[in-house]
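Field reference: sequence -> structure
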Amino acid sequence: MARAFGDNGKLDDTYIKDILSPYESDHSALSDAAKLRESRFTCAKAILVYGFAYSGRDLEPILHALEVLARDAGQLGDRTSTEFDGLVHPVHAKGLVAAWQVL
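Structure field:
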């Protein structure tokens, strides 16, 4: 989950690690892709990120960085994504869901 602000609207300055950390103990999207790539699963594998968009905190740079880092470590498919909005939460009203196949 990419969420720059808590439910109270206070900035969480560590939220990017949930997506980009290379350390397995952080359980990030990047480390999840690496674990899936190394797994013995024979089925299709994918990572999914959902995140919220805010004025001045676009998700695109984070997702692009994830793609660059994950592709550097191995094969990653193209991004499939969809946006959502109209949520009633006062802080988290819109965002997107994105997924990539881990090849």
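Note: Helices lie at 17-20, 29-38, 60-73.
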